[in-house]
Records
---
Amino acid sequence: MATERTFSILKPDATKRNLTGAVNAVIEKAGLRIVGQRRIQMSRAQAEKFYEIHKERPFFGELVEFMTSGPVVVQVLEGENAVAKYREVMGATNPANADEGTIRKTFSESVGENTVHGSDSLDNAKAEIAQFFQDSDIAG
Ligand code: GDP
């Protein structure tokens, strides 16, 4: 297994409920190191670009609206097999289908407002990290 970096977002439902620390505790307990982190207000243009792959989906408008509805915390996570590991720690997209102990099972209230984003491949992780971070903002 290789050391990888993945991209994470703590979504507006997390920051609104003061869950940044609680979610970070789950991430760190899973052995993932938070090597970059910044709290930002995502612009509509940034959200539309980030979720471009979903632009034909019926929930795209709602998704962009939600992701710009309040601050988010963008993160770079590092660890062994980090991309797949973080997907496991997050749990299924719909919290109703997520396993016990996952972030979404523990904290999320709906399929839309599901607390966290995590890259689904190493290539996407690289592109997503590049959208929000400069190399000098990341310290492993
Ligand atoms: P993920 O990789 O587990 O985040 O899931 P997807 O890539 O399939 O979807 C991206 C994001 O779109 C999800 O995390 C949700 O925030 C949102 N989303 C997915 N399905 C729905 C839906 O049916 N309704 C709404 N409102 N949002 C959705």
Note: The chain has a mean pLDDT of 98.
---
Amino acid sequence: MTGINESIKSVLKRSHLAAQLSKKNIGQEIRIIGWVEDFRDIGKLGFIMLRDTSGLVQCVLLGKILLDARNIPRQSNVSISGIVQDTKSKNFEVELKVDGMTVLSAATLSLPIDPTGRVESNLDTRLDNRALDLRNSRVLNIFLMRSGILRTIREFFFQNGFTEVNTPKIIGSASEGGSNLFSFEYFKRKGYLAQSPQLYKEQLVLSLERVFEIGPYFRAENSHTLRHLNEFQSVDLEAAYLDYSEVMDLIEELVKKILTFAGHSGKTNNDNNHIYNSTIFDNLVHQPFRRITYEECIDELNNLGERVEFGDDLTDLSLKKLGEKFDKFYFITDWPLALKPFYIHENDDNPLLSKSFDLQFGYLELVSGGTRQHDVSKLKARLKDQGLSLEGFSNHLKAFEWGMPPHSGCGLGLDRLLMVLMGENNIRETVLYPRDTVRISP
Ligand code: ATP
Ligand code: MG
């Protein structure tokens, strides 16, 4: 290797991340790499605020290096070496006195958005330039949190004896009935994008007992709300020998684990631009989530002056009213069977009701789940009741004749959970590249 290559290699090796620097490092020669967020020039002295994924470092520049720095556009990617020293700044524990600087990749002078957020851009412009938008620490924190939550979810499932599975997203027939499927040409026949892994995860219980999947749902719904996308991520579980109340127990435990994780890791970088509100959530870890039956909700709504009858679905307005009354996390249980898909089990005492639940956060539905019907003759009757063809489900139904254990499960909308935790009211903020009725790129 030539000397030049060696020196290029060495400028690509950082010794520290921004957030790792502390008073302990004073006097050490170190190397950091990141993006020039800001440059302040006060004549004989200049300051670069260098950002990496962990946070910011204040870099002090003098002499020739200061002259060179005047030509570096903001957001350029640079490698900086220097000596760590004490600082007068209130925002930092230490600063870096720069002795070497290499521009790895210069940014253009006219950026489409200002990642510092000082010049505000609307959400559409930010999403059009999402990769750059992520240099904003508030935005970055959402996705660092999302990644940490995904790890927490996986750990939780493995600790509870679940196997992670991946089921196909290209399917040959409408999986749950329903008309909101995207279809496309698949080698001279029709293919569809899966609206959920429901049928597959139930079939897998036959041999794996406990499965979970984290993957996309596709819904061809023409919704224009702040909580619906046409592609979103769901955390699905299905478990043999549990009933719906035990699945509620599991989901409650999982959500509390996530809250605990978020509370600990809340301060994900060192510039305090952090929006997880632990004061709201820390308390919730220690109290049980309320469980309210659908019928209690109907009574409550009538008390609040809404005219709702047994059998009505809960409208946006009803959910808003319930959300004001019950606040934070609560379950709505025992929905009318007629409102539920064919695979949901009826209530043993009252066949008009079902063994089902939703987890809500205020007005927002986060999870739907229930005990599944595993008696194949009842399953067939339910399919007929809902006007679905047995033929179309023959592949699925045969698994129920091979010793299918009684089972229950649910699906949790990951992007919606992130909205709740990060205090966002638009789901587009919690998805890297959201897909809605008008947005299909980038
Ligand atoms: P909603 O009534 O809010 O439209 P749903 O009852 O149709 O939701 P489910 O089929 O129960 O949704 O899906 C499971 C979970 O996936 C929901 O509880 C929710 O958290 C999430 N989810 C459903 N639809 C969407 C969507 N279009 N965009 C984002 N998340 C969604
Ligand atoms: Mg639902």
Note: The chain has two domains: 6-105, 133-430.
---
Amino acid sequence: MHQDIKKVLYTEEQIQNKIKELAAVLTEEYRGKNPIFVGVMKGVVLFFADMVKRIDTPCQIDFMWLSSYAGTGSTGNLIVKRDVSANLKGRHVVILEDIYDTGRSLTFVRDHLLSKEPASVKICTLLDKPEGRLPGITLEADYVGYEIPNEFVVGYGLDYNEYYRNLPYIGILKSEVYEK
Ligand code: 5GP
Ligand code: MG
């Protein structure tokens, strides 16, 4: 285990088993519907690749990149830095996310994709932190891998200062690391 990790929450094997379960559900739900899986970079890349490998019906993939800029207010606003390239009109869209926390980014992404007139938009997140939700956010994920407590996790795509994304497991970072 990496020296900066306090505790492993989910091992590589547990994550892969969970992905098999989620992908089996999505495969049945979207069989014959030609779904398009949309990933929001970059945290989702490991989960995204492992998920779509297990989808057993014809599908397509696409990616978006968000960016936040500090506006005149205290909170940064989200903007689309790189949009999906496919035409989503009439398509069944599944947003894949690494972690659902405050709900700001997924609400923004969902609204942005809905403006492209898809047939449907659903959300599948590997991790959900229900305690992190901002007041006023009503959106919930349709498919959730694990509900986790309100702790900062890294690994399996999730970063701290762009590090730890390469860890094959998900763990809680030692507090000394971000207090340094
Ligand atoms: P939100 O739901 O807060 O709008 O967006 C979730 C995003 O916040 C994730 O995509 C991720 O970048 C970041 N995030 C939230 N919680 C965590 C966490 O525990 N660890 C890491 N590494 N990123 C997190
Ligand atoms: Mg992210």
Note: The chain has one domain: 5-178.
---
Amino acid sequence: MFERLEPIAVDTILGLMAAYRADPDPRKVDLGVGVYRNDRGETPVLSAVQRAESALLTSQTTKAYVGATGNPGFNQAMERLVFGADHAALSAGRVRTVQAPGGCGALRLGAEIIRTASPGSVVHVPTPTWSNHPPLLCGAGLKLESYPYFDAATGGVQFNAMIAVLERLPAGAVVLLHASCHNPTGADLSEEQWREILALVKRRHLLPFIDMAYQGFGDGLDADAFAIRLFSSELPEVVCAVSCSKNFGLYRERTGALHVITETPAGAEATLSNLVRIARGIWSMPPDHGAAVVYGILNDATLCAGWMEEVDAMRSRIGGLRGAVVQQLQQHCPQRDFSFIARQRGMFSYFGMSTAQVRELRSRHHIYMTDDSRMNVAGLRQENLEYFARSVAEVLGR
Ligand code: LMR
């Protein structure tokens, strides 16, 4: 049977990771995969994570299964982190949370519960969206359509075009929204725009499916959860997929959660039973370690305060780099305006180069970004900023 399979192209982000690792050139710069790096180009284990792991090592007495919904303490701590401790949907018993293997697991579980509740659902994703959204959502049987989002002319959001398309969607349509730090563009919605979308979603009876993979990397832990908190208090139903990969630096531990907000507590219980059945049929029970670490951090005031400082430090380094790279680019490519990079949020910026230029940057200068010219700003360092800007100028000038 397998002889009938044709080889397929490797996923763009995974392919780029492998190409970067294989490149022996000492000047190489990794702006590809969305992994935070410090100014030495490293992705160290956060110190709050190290401390929680040490405590776990001495306190953990078993490796027996945790259960289908994961670690209940982790789920509650994530609810407080995502919604804020006093959120009305939590106190009304309208939220159910299931631990998932990373943000991807949460997205897949969210897509599966939508298809289970409403087979034939269409999910509308922004143009562009994260390259793994389509396989995750379509793999669960949802149909995919797109709405306008990124405005290449300004580096911001084409808000009017976005609204015009969403306004025409039929009741029950699912709209995938990035809570903050839009991947791949870095272009985020303002609070005022979120409020407009909320009014539209209410008017058109749409279902928001919100992906939050970078809480804390945009404007802060609370500010980045603004849309989730607002929508969950104003709408009967919301689906939220959350990742701990970036803000806890737990990439390889596959730690995330799906929160489903329902209209009533009874609906929430029925939803939870379906989520458990779906998860059982895919991964059965989620991996424990990352969730146990997050639980350890969020339930210890000292560790939690230390972790928040680390998140602040990562965010401010990215913010500083955004300003610094704009300066360097202005100096080396004065004919082009790169100021949009400083206005964007999170790890990514859509650089606005052609695929041919991106590939030239890779082959001649060993600078790696995805073919659509998404760059991970956190991959830059003080010591390679100038090299980066000079290389870009050379490629753009050719
Ligand atoms: C990215 O967008 O680079 C990250 O979210 C990693 C991944 O799995 O694609």
Note: Residues 325 and 385 are 6 Å apart (CA to CA).
